[in-house]
Amino acid sequence: MMRRKYWALAVLCASLVFLLYNRSFNICSTGLCSDRRIQPVRPVQAAETLPATTTRDPTPKSCLPAGMRVARTSAGFDMVVLEKDDIVSNDIYTKHEWEIARTEDMARRAGTTLPPGGTFLDIGANIGYYTLLFAQKGFNVIAVEAMTRNRQAIMGSLCLNPQLQERVTIVPAALVAPWEVDKGHCVVKSTNYKVNIGNGFLNCKQGESCQSGDENCQTVPVKTLDTVLEDLAPSSVDVVKMDVEVYECHVLAGGGSLFAHFQPKLLQIETAWGNTSACVHEQAEKHGYREQKFGGDTAMVRIGHEAPELQQAPADIGTSTQASSSTTLDPAPIFKQSVISTSTLSATPAGISDSMRNMCVPAGMRVAAVSAGFDMVVFSEDDLVSSEIVATQRWEIDNLEQMASKAGTTLPPGGTFLDIGANLGYYTLLFAQKGFNVIAVEAMTRNRQAIMGSLCLNPQLQERVTIVPAALVAPWEVDKGHCVVKSTNYKVNIGNGFLNCKQGESCQSGDENCQTVPVKTLDTVLEDLAPSSVDVVKMDVEVYECNVLAGGGSLFTHFHPKLLQIETAWGNASHCVQAAALQYGYSTKKVAGDTAMVSKPL
């Protein structure tokens, strides 16, 4: 009897051992334990953020998609950015921020404060800088982004910052107007394949498609904002950022519930292009919001939720990053947004459709036809170059051959045209139309916006033009980092900028014709862009020609362009040009207020 009891007890013990072993095996097979010890998963605290410094591998392979890299932000987190050809990525990688350094900056520019928490709606999230910034602050985020590559970057960033993952919901669609939903899909295409591939322009026209092998174009699903909000049913929508390249009016047309049901405290909407300002103004009046313009955006603040002590806060917080940006993502605070008047639009060439005008023409500008056969964007008023182009359909020359003939030479058959002081881009467009690649150096944001508007009107020229958003200076001025550029005449020549790099120079608050700009030497620009050749040069930088030449020796030693046209009407520019001609083997010829330099035969 005793033997049978021992036997039963032994069987019971053996069974328990087997059961425990089998249980341990099943758990380990799922990867939840190591070395036969179960490792607890550490819960993420609700408001946990990354420390100011981190020792983890900055480029974990598991998080980094091909063609991307990791950037450190000034807000203290790492994020995935595109490796090349993208303005936003480049700014974040080099300056550690995009437009703002922290969420509070967005509110201060609008003259208000942020709510303590809630939901941030990021429409046109791009690679997710604002999304991550608000998620780090503790907000839940709805990030609407149509472009697959951008979403991959966002997901890579969330992989790097797993404590933020549960706060972010990504909507992989483009937001459209109700009448466009039946299409099911639209086409989104990068606005510039060389410098802005993360910036998408949506086209919902019938029959639009992508060319085979075009990595910067894709067909995307579409929804209305109302549908997204109904599907996700957030408990609140408290702060909104919208930047969708001229499609803002369409998004608002399909998003009535945003105001009727949620009434966010603060919205920041890009209004630099098309008739977006009018749509935003209409919504503000209809739903009880005040408007605050800054740069290329308009803030809508719900009336009764302002912060009076902040209403006079400077409108340029965070715009130092924008000053180094080019093309469409470039809303530096130097010009007043306004809806183009009917009288202005009546001067627009008949060949430009209303939709094209709305899509391409920034507020305060208009379209002019030029004798060379293309249309371009010019200022509506107070600008000598613009008025001349509207009145005579030209500026200085009708065609490239005139530039060469005035210098007593001929143009090379093609190559690269370097336009230093591009102004509104008349020469830039003329050379691009002729088949040249163009490097357009222009410090003034307003001028660059006009150039980008012209490239929008002439999309066949876009891939030929690279815009450098900086002022060129002498080597001894580079350490300043920034200088001040100011219109030479506020009444008749606002597009003509005079550069001042003296210590302590600044712009007066509210001066729309003055801005702080980044600086580079010409040698640095040529080294960075590495063109295969530089064949023709135009330089017009208001007395700064000698400084540019002082920092541009490689222009002659490495590239030796055939023809240069340099303004020498002011200062000692004539002496610098003569010295360069003598040193590098050029003949010179005076042409009105310019000097032409023509390379002597070797």
UniProtKB/TrEMBL annotation:
Keywords: Signal. Residues 318-329 have a biased composition (Polar residues). Residues 309-329 are annotated as: Disordered. Residues 122-273, 419-568 form the Methyltransferase FkbM domain. InterPro entries: FkbM_mtfrase, SAM-dependent_MTase, SAM-dependent_MTases_sf. Residues 1-24 form the signal peptide. It holds the Pfam family Methyltransf_21. PANTHER family: METHYLTRANSFERASE, FKBM FAMILY PROTEIN, SLL1173 PROTEIN. This is Methyltransferase FkbM domain-containing protein.
